[in-house]
Amino acid sequence: MRDEKNGQYYSHVRSEILPLLPEHCERVLEIGCGSGETLLWLKTQKPDCQWLAGVELFPQSGALAAPRLNWFCAGNIETLELDIAPASLDLILCLDVLEHLVDPWKTVGKLHHLLKPEGHIIASIPNIRYYSASLGLVLKGNWDYQKEGILDSTHLRFFTKKTAIALMQSSGLAMDMVIGKGLEKGRKARWLNLLTLGIFRPFFEFQYLIRVKNRQR
Fold this sequence. Notes:
By secondary structure, this protein is of the alpha/beta class. It has helices spanning 37-45, 59-65, 104-112, 131-140, 161-169, 187-195; strands spanning 27-31, 51-56, 71-74, 89-95, 115-126, 174-181, 207-213.
C-alpha cells in the first residue's frame, strides 16, 4: 500500500470525475478517502447525496475525514470487513487506489457486492504506456521509481488502458465510460495525435477514469 505523503496529496478535490458521476448518488463510499474533501465536494454537485462513507489507511488523514462523514473505517481495504450491507451503495470511488493493492481484482469483486443494481464504481488508474514512463524503459533500459506519479515507488500493479478496463470488469461489472486524461494538456501531443489518426494517443494519456456499472439482476 501507499506510504504516508504530505497532507495536501490526500486532501485535494478530485473534480475531474464530474463527467462520470451517475444520476443517482444517494449512498456513496470512497476507498482511500483521505481527509474527505472529494466526498464533501460531491455533495455540492449531487444534492441527493444523503450518506457519505470513507475508508482510509492513514490515521492522520482519517482523523480529519471521520467527523465529516456518516460512516468511516480506518485500515487496509484488502483486509477490512466492511460493515456495509450488500447491494446498498449507489456509487463507490477508487481514485488512485487500485494500483497500490496486492490483489486489486479481489478488491473490485468485494466492492461489487456492495453495489445496488445499476450502481457504479468510478476508478482512476495510471497508464504505464504514458511516454514519460515508457520511453526510459524502451530507449535506456531504465525503470526508475519516483516519490509520486506513474512510477510511484508504492505502486504494486501497473496497467494499460486495456488491462485497466479488464480489471474493472473482472467481477462481472459492465463497462460504462472511460476518459483518458493528459492529451488535453499538450498542444504538440494533440497535433501528433491528429496527424497519426490516434495511433500515439495511448502514449499521451497519463491516467484513465473508468466507470463501470452493476448489471440489473
